[in-house]
Specification:
This protein folds into four domains: about 120 residues, Beta-Lactamase, CATH 3.30.450; about 80 residues; about 300 residues, Helix Hairpins (Orthogonal Bundle); about 120 residues, Up-down Bundle (Four Helix Bundle (Hemerythrin (Met), subunit A)). The longest helix is centred in the middle third of the chain and has 170 residues. The chain is an alpha+beta fold. The protein is built from 15 helices and ten strands. Keywords: Cell inner membrane, Cell membrane, Membrane, Transducer, Transmembrane, Transmembrane helix. This is Methyl-accepting chemotaxis sensory transducer.
């Protein structure tokens, strides 16, 4: 199916169906809303009826409390005194009817008979066995609420058991009849339909306020009799059904209620009409927009198709499809197509760039392989020279081995002598160490003796000082003895003068004189002993000082001997070290000589092996030359395949835009100017080779040249670049060969031709660039 058919036929049809479905579902939605509203409203009305009936239970309880609290009334009922009970009930009934809206007070005997009805005093004694609610109270002795049919209509009854003096005597009920006044209290209009009387017999009682219409015919009364609670509506009213059930759960009637819902129904109909008008308007608008969109879209698609055909025919990947600045889906598609074409173009350019790099690398590899050929030739010549040198070396090594063996014999003798000297030195060292230890021990003893003699000398001096002090004390004692003797003499003289009276005193004075003489004599003896002791101590002190001097001389001599022994030990240790070193050196020399001998033998063997390796390496070098030639041939083949691919691509596809071709030209001009400068620098420095790409197919411009499909107006000039470009690189090869021959003058002559060819090449490039830029 064409886009035009889709835009003009299929989409409008699809939108029409969508609008129809929208209208259909909108209508159903509004109808559903109406249904939900009716259901919610009906539930609210039913709950309101429940609440209304429930609201009468508390007044009934209060009324019953008044009845049961009247002891006289209960007593009259217990005594079956009906007249007295009537007198008591009448005022109470009037009061309860006035204050609580009570419709009836009814006493029942325990044998299920009516005893007194407050609203019909003449009727009593009739059986109430058909009343299931009274039976339940009689059996359970518990009060209950019940909704029962009656002669005057349904009534809400509160039945309570009555006890007197602890004995059950019957039941009493207070009731509220659902009559016209109750129906007026409900919302809207309500009528009561009762189809069973109080005994369960069929009836057809309709209770309604006078001002209300009998709308019971709107209902399916048979379904109500079967217990179906229905609600429905017509153009104006919402109808509901409130089923009335007795204590046994049996349906005996219903309250039929309707409310005026004309405003709600009018709003719903208005919404439906507005929805239809809106849907039709939306349909017309959408169809118009679709037709307009189809025209614009077809125009853009036609333009897009023409542009794609041009790209396909011209194979111009640099071409861009221009469709304006709009941001619709077709414009996005055009942008994505442009991106896709540019992605293809970028892929081709990336491939060309990779090919260019690969081509340059191949050119460098070929140049390096050429240098490798030369290097391998040089290695081959060197290998031949090395083989000859190895033969000469092998002969020299054999001669050297014989000399080394003679040196090894002499070295062994020297090593044995050095070991004997080392043993003797070790013994001398041990003796010197023992003597040094003895001298050190003697020196320690001398030092101890000096210390002890100092202590004795100090004690002698102390003793001499103390003896001098004792001499002073003895002198004092002698003086005291002389004075005592003089006093005793004086006392004897005085006693003689006294005569007989002083005789006793004379005896005492004589004894004192004797004691003084004895003391003097003892002091003189002690003084003589002290003098001898003092002289002896002085002699000992002098001898100790002389002994100290001799001990000091011994200590100094011991120190001198110890120092000399240390010097001897040091010299002996040096001798031992030298002997050990000599032994070690001679042993090492012997080992080295043996090692040298072994090494010389190994060297001779290695020289022979080296000769074999050199010859094998020469053979491998020749094989490598062949492999390098094969690799060069393979690289040239790969490069030729790249060029063939480039020629095929350039004949089919425009990959490069004109601005990009200008950029290629600019890069080529700079690259070849730089190339010529490097060639000139190599000639001036007299280098032996050129370090530039010499093959035109492997330079950067040559690698990309064959991939470019030029615009028709410059194609002739573009293809004219090939010849001067090839010529420039051929002349570069000639310069390289001249430099390798060290023909620097010849290289300069060729370089002049390079300059003129380069000017021709760059001149054509400048013309191409000018033509491309002038068209832009």
């Amino acid at each position: 199916m064409s886009i035009k058919a889709i835009s003009y036929v299929f989409l409008p049809l699809l939108i029409s169906i969508s609008v129809f479905l929208l209208v259909f579902f909108s209508y159903n939605s509004i109808t559903r809303v109406n249904f939900v509203w009716e259901q919610r409203t009906a539930n609210e009305l039913l709950k309101s009826l429940d609440d209304k009936i429930e609201s009468f239970k508390n007044p009934l309880k209060l009324a019953m409390r008044f009845v049961l609290s009247n002891d006289e009334l209960i007593s009259a009922f217990a005594q079956q005194d009906r007249e007295r009970l009537i007198d008591l009930v009448k005022p109470l009934y009037e009061e309860l009817s006035k204050n609580y809206g009570i419709s009836q007070i009814h006493f029942h005997t325990r044998d299920l008979k009516s005893f007194l009805r407050s609203n019909n005093l003449s009727k009593y004694g009739d059986s109430l066995s058909f009343r299931s609610d009274i039976k339940k109270v009689n059996e359970s002795k518990n009060p209950i609420f019940s909704l029962q049919s009656g002669a005057s209509g349904p009534a809400l009854r509160y039945i309570v058991p009555v006890n007197y003096d602890g004995e059950f005597i019957g039941t009493v009920e207070v009731s509220y009849i659902i009559d016209k006044s109750f129906l007026k209290m409900l919302s809207g209009e309500a009528i009561l339909y009762q189809f069973l009387d109080e005994e369960g017999k069929e009836t057809n009682l309709i209770i309604k306020p006078d001002e209300f219409e009998d709308f019971s015919k709107k209902y399916h009364l048979e379904q109500i009799r079967n217990g179906k609670n229905e609600y429905f509506s017509d153009d104006k009213y919402l109808y509901i059904t409130y089923l009335l059930k007795n204590t046994d759960g049996k349906n005996f009637g219903a309250i039929l209620q309707r409310i005026d819902a004309s405003e709600a129904f009018k709003t719903i109909r208005s919404n439906i009409i507005n929805q239809l008008i809106l849907s039709i308007g939306l349909f017309v608008l959408i169809v118009g927009l679709l037709i307009t969109f189809g025209v614009i879209t077809n125009k853009k698609i036609s333009h897009l198709t023409n542009e794609i055909v041009k790209i396909s025919q011209q194979k111009d990947l640099a071409r861009q499809i221009n469709i304006g600045k709009s941001k619709d889906e077709i414009s996005n598609i055009v942008r994505e197509i442009n991106i896709l074409v540019q992605s293809f173009r970028k892929t081709f350019k990336d491939f060309i760039a990779v090919d260019q790099e690969a081509n340059v690398i191949i050119g460098n590899l070929l140049m390096k392989f050429g240098e490798l050929n030369i290097a391998i030739d040089n290695f081959s010549r060197i290998f031949n020279d090395v083989a000859k040198l190895v033969e000469v070396t092998s002969t020299s090594v054999n001669d050297s081995t014989n000399m080394v063996e003679e040196i090894a014999s002499s070295t062994t003798t020297i090593a044995n002598s050095a070991q004997n000297v080392s043993v003797t030195v070790e013994k001398v060292t041990e003796e010197v160490k023992v003597s040094d230890e003895a001298i050190l021990n003697m020196k320690d003893s001398v030092n101890t003796t000096i210390v002890e003699s100092h202590e004795i000398s100090e004690q002698a001096i102390t003793l001499k000082i103390k003896s001098e002090k004792i001499a002073d004390i003895l002198k004092t004692i002698t003086d005291i003895a002389d004075q005592t003797n003089l006093l005793a003499l004086n006392a004897a003289i005085e006693a003689a003068r006294a005569g007989e009276a002083g005789r006793g005193f004379a005896v005492v004075a004589d004894e004192i004189r004797k004691l003084a003489e004895s003391t003097r004599s003892s002091a003189n003896e002690v003084g003589a002993i002290l003098t001898e002791l003092k002289n002896g101590i002085g002699s000992i002190s002098d001898r100790i000082r002389a002994f100290d001097e001799k001990v000091k001389i011994i200590d100094e001599s011991a120190s001198t001997v110890s120092e000399r022994l240390k010097n001897i030990l040091s010299e002996v240790e040096k001798l031992d070290k030298d002997a050990s070193n000599l032994a070690a050196i001679t042993q090492e020399q012997s080992a080295s000589v043996e090692e040298i001998s072994a090494s010389m033998q190994s060297l001779a063997k290695s020289a022979l092996q080296m000769g074999e390796e050199v010859r094998a390496s020469n053979e491998r070098a020749q094989s490598l030359l062949k492999e390098v030639s094969d690799v060069k041939a393979l690289l040239n083949e790969v490069s030729q395949q790249f060029r063939n691919l480039a020629n095929s691509l350039s004949r089919e596809v425009f990959v490069y835009s004109e601005s990009e071709i200008v950029e290629v030209i600019d890069n080529a001009i700079r690259a070849h100017e730089n190339w010529v400068s490097k060639v000139e620098e190599s000639i001036n420095k007299k280098q032996t080779y050129l370090d530039v790409i010499l093959d035109a197919n492997f330079c950067r411009f040559g690698s990309i040249y064959h991939f470019v499909k030029p615009p028709a107006r410059i194609s002739q000039k573009w293809y004219a670049l090939d010849k001067p470009h090839e010529r420039v690189h051929q002349l570069g090869c000639a310069v390289d060969q001249a430099l390798r021959r060290k023909d620097f003058d010849g290289a300069r002559q060729i370089f002049k031709e390079i300059l003129s060819t380069k000017d021709e090449l760059i001149g054509i490039m400048q013309d191409i660039k000018k033509d491309l830029q002038s068209n832009a």
